[in-house]
Amino acid sequence: MKLQLHDNEGALISDNTDWLYNAPGPQPDLAYAPLRALAPARVSAHAEARRRDEGETIVDLTLRNRGDVIAFQVRIQLLTGHADERLTPLFLTDNYLTLLPGETRTVQARFREPDRKRTRLRITGWNTVLKDSGHIPIRWDDDHDRR
Questions:
Q1: Which are the contacts of 9, defined by CB distance < 8 A and separation ≥ 6?
Q2: Are strands 120-124 and 97-99 parallel, antiparallel or unpaired?
Q3: 3-state percent helix, strand, coil for the chain, nearest multiple of 5
């Protein structure tokens, strides 16, 4: 079930997607059986840093479900270094999100800027399939000046 709250002008204030399944009898684990059978969802991602203030990086991450099944529990992480170390703290406007078929969503990420050349996002999910094992490079706002 997807719920959305809009203001008087129609702007989205909040949205929430919940998994509802009425399992027969007192076996709550059966409610998740359809999730185990979900086909892979093809998700694409693009990340662009749009400004940095006082050492803080702000990245717009655009995710799109290009498949015909939901992309369930899409998770965003920030990695740095050669050993895929998680970089924290990472502040996100959304995480563990569900994308309906054809849906596009932009999530804002904020973090203290480490070594730009080794920083990337990793996108994973219950049934999510991305190129390069979900490792998404960040395009920095001054990258286009170097071309």
A1: none
A2: unpaired
A3: 15, 50, 35
